[in-house]
Design a protein that fits this description.
The protein is mainly alpha-helical. It has helices spanning about 15-30, 35-50, 55-70, 75-90, 95-110, 115-130, 135-150, 155-170, 175-190, 195-210, 215-230, 235-250, 255-270, 275-285, 290-305.
């Protein structure tokens, strides 16, 4: 059987989770006292029940755990259960209840300086506000979360919060803010030396500039992203970059340069076996007025260079 512990349940089937629950219930019945070991097992069962959508049973078990921890003045245990209840209500789409429980947990974690757990709670609160379409409140929470992540050099959660902020401001079409947020993601990926993240950030910045019809700036970002992809030998990102660059040249009225990049892209697509990309690039060339015969001729020229 797979190991049970901190692993996510996504790799388990419903039947396997049911089996784990039954095993834990059997062991639970063998315990004579409702001590800490009993409560730990009950909490594990409640988490698994959330995975199966058995929210009522999970909630009942979590309430028992919460009472136990409050009675024994175990603040960490109390915060942990409150956080799980926040997750439960989020999954039930009871977002106000989710916020209340996450906030209670956050206050305890903040007081006890459990920073990673406090960050998780803030992310839960922000996501609940987003689901309620309270975007201003959601953004405030995610900005607070970013600040906390920056203070503790928690890079992955920082990027996650930035991603949520980008989603909010893209939804509101506030492209100037989205642009600044993508600049922050780029700097973070550069700090991490995450090549794929760097390339994607350059492309995202280019897409925003293209949307604003600032094609010169967009072209610069797309070139930086494509060059980084070439350095890292990421063929699929090189192909994407060539397409972006070609489109920018076209919008700038630089037809020959656009044609060259699209032809280069088709050659790479053929080499990769990327049929959909090849078809898309050929369509772009045809919108520029090239015939099928002319495209084949250009490909032959490119090959003979």
């Amino acid at each position: 059987m797979k190991k049970v512990g901190n692993d996510t349940m996504e790799e388990y089937s419903r039947e396997e989770i049911e089996e784990i629950i039954n095993q834990k219930k059997t062991y639970l019945e063998e315990l004579e006292e409702k001590d800490q070991e009993y409560i730990k097992l009950l909490s594990d069962i409640a988490l698994l029940q959330i995975e199966l959508g058995k929210y009522k049973s999970s909630e009942e078990n979590l309430v028992i755990c919460l009472k136990y921890f409050k009675k024994h003045k175990d603040r960490i245990g109390e915060a942990s259960v409150l956080g799980i209840l926040g997750t439960l209500y989020f999954k039930k789409k009871e977002y106000d209840e989710s916020i209340n429980h996450y906030r209670e947990a956050y206050e305890i974690y903040k007081e006890l300086k459990q920073i990673d757990e406090a960050i998780t709670c803030l992310k839960g609160i922000g996501s609940s506000y987003f689901k309620l379409n309270k975007l201003e409140k959601a953004s405030e929470v995610f900005f607070d979360c970013c600040d906390l992540c920056s203070e503790t050099d928690n890079i992955y959660n920082f990027l996650d919060c930035l991603g949520n902020l980008i989603r909010i401001y893209e939804h509101q079409e506030k492209w100037d803010i989205v642009y600044e947020l993508y600049q922050k993601t780029l700097k973070t990926f550069q700090k991490m030396n995450d090549k794929r993240g760097i390339i994607t950030s350059f492309f995202n910045l280019g897409i925003i500039k293209k949307r604003l019809k600032e094609f010169g700036d967009a072209l610069n970002f797309f070139k930086q992203g494509t060059n980084a992809a070439i350095d890292s030998n990421y063929s699929e990102l090189i192909l994407k970059g060539l397409s972006y660059i070609g489109e920018c040249h076209f919008n700038l009225g630089q037809q020959n340069k656009a044609k060259e990049r699209f032809i280069e892209g088709i050659r790479l697509a053929n080499k990769m076996g990327a049929e959909n990309a090849r078809i898309q690039l050929e369509l772009l060339l045809k919108t520029m007025g090239l015939t099928e015969k002319e495209i084949k001729s250009e490909l032959k020229k490119e090959k003979n260079k």
